[in-house]
Every structure is written in C-alpha cells, then in structure tokens.
Design brief:
The protein has about 200 residues and is mostly helical. The protein folds into two domains: about 10-55, Arc Repressor Mutant, subunit A (Orthogonal Bundle), CATH 1.10.10; about 60-204, Tetracycline Repressor, domain 2 (Orthogonal Bundle), CATH 1.10.357.10. It is built from eight helices and no strands. The protein has helices spanning about 10-30, 40-45, 60-85, 90-105, 110-115, 125-145, 155-170, 185-195.
C-alpha cells in the first residue's frame, strides 16, 4: 500500500488566497497604474474587507514586495527554457539575451516599473525578493565571464544599455519597436568596447 502524504489544507488555502490577492494587485496596477494601488481596491476585487488583507500581507509594501519577487521569478524561470537556444558566438549570444529581457520588459509596463524603477516612495524590496533579482544578474555575470569579459563595470554597462532602450521604448513608442531595432547596434558598440571578436550587424 502506498502511503498518501498528509495535506496541509489550511496552508494550501492561504497560499491560494495570497495568489488571488497578488493577481488582483497586478490587475489594478496594469489598469490604473502601479502607484495607485490601494488595499481597498484589491480587497474589493477578491471579495474581502480591507482589514482581512492584513492576515495575508502585513502592509501594502508587503504586497509590492511579493509582486516584485514574483516578477523577477517569472523572468528567471525563462532562462533555462532559452539557454538551449543561446548562440555560441559571443556577440550573437549577448544580443539574444538583450532581446529576451527587452521583450519581457516591454510587454508589461507595471511589471517593468516595479522591477527596475523606483516608482513607489518608501518601498525597498526585502532581502528574499531582491535575491531573485541577484540570481538574474548572476546569470549575466556567468555569461560575460564565459566570453572572457571580466571588466568589473561590464554588467552595469550592459544592463544600462538594455534598460535604457526599454525606458525609451516605453516613453516614446509604447507597443512599437523603434528602440528594439537599436538593440543589435547598441550591443555591437558594447562588444567593441569589451574587445569581443565576431561580426557586427543585425542578428536574426
């Protein structure tokens, strides 16, 4: 006879409720703006009274923190799926990774703002949530190291280039591709600065 593990149904219900609250919070942020998030609006959407939210999240910033960690985890989960498609040629690989992040960031303004911009006064991610973002940065460090790029400023320069293009896209051509089309040129400039070999130009 196979033993059936005991299920903690109370914990399962709490986790399901937390997921429902976060889903509602994202809906509000996408419809009305990240900074307009209110406990009252979230509670209304999940059929709760606002004080009941405190049994799941200690504060509104705790909801932002859970959203922040969830957003970075969603991106981190994409990396293993894409690793098999990563080109072996250094410039092509850096362009591939740049497009992956650019498309993720350009797909959801509220998520992008929470992940990479300081739009919420007084909000600082917790150590646990920020650690997920650090894992993503570690993946970049490993990729650069693989190609012999060991300049301490190299990761900062790379993320500034790609992040800056994302910001320009959202500010000036949301839904378009004007700044996405500049990615390959920007990464070629970066690769030249880092002394990488390989052909310049657009990569499919």
């Amino acid at each position: 006879m196979v033993a059936v593990p005991n299920r903690d149904r109370q914990t399962e219900r709490r986790e399901a409720t937390r997921r429902e609250i976060l889903h509602a919070a994202w809906d509000v942020a996408r419809e009305q703006g990240l900074a307009t998030l209110t406990l009252r609006e979230i509670a209304t959407r999940v059929g709760m009274r606002p004080p009941s939210l405190y049994s799941h999240f200690a504060s509104k910033n705790a909801i932002y923190d859970a959203m922040y960690g969830q957003a970075w985890q969603t991106y981190l989960d994409l990396i293993p799926e894409q690793r098999a498609q990563l080109p072996s040629e250094p410039r092509a690989a850096l362009k591939f990774v740049a497009r992956l992040f650019f498309d993720f960031a350009a797909a959801d303004l509220a998520r992008h703002q929470l992940m990479t911009q300081r739009t919420i006064p007084g909000f600082t991610p917790s150590h646990e949530s920020y650690a997920i973002a650090v894992e993503v940065l570690d993946e970049l460090h490993q990729l650069l190291d693989r190609f012999g790029i060991r300049d301490p400023a190299a990761p900062d320069l790379y993320t500034a280039l790609v992040g800056g293009l994302v910001d320009q896209q959202w500010a000036n051509d949301p839904g378009g591709d004007r700044w996405r089309r500049l990615l390959d040129r920007a990464i070629d400039m970066y690769a030249d600065e880092m002394g990488l070999p390989g052909p310049r130009g657009d990569t499919p």
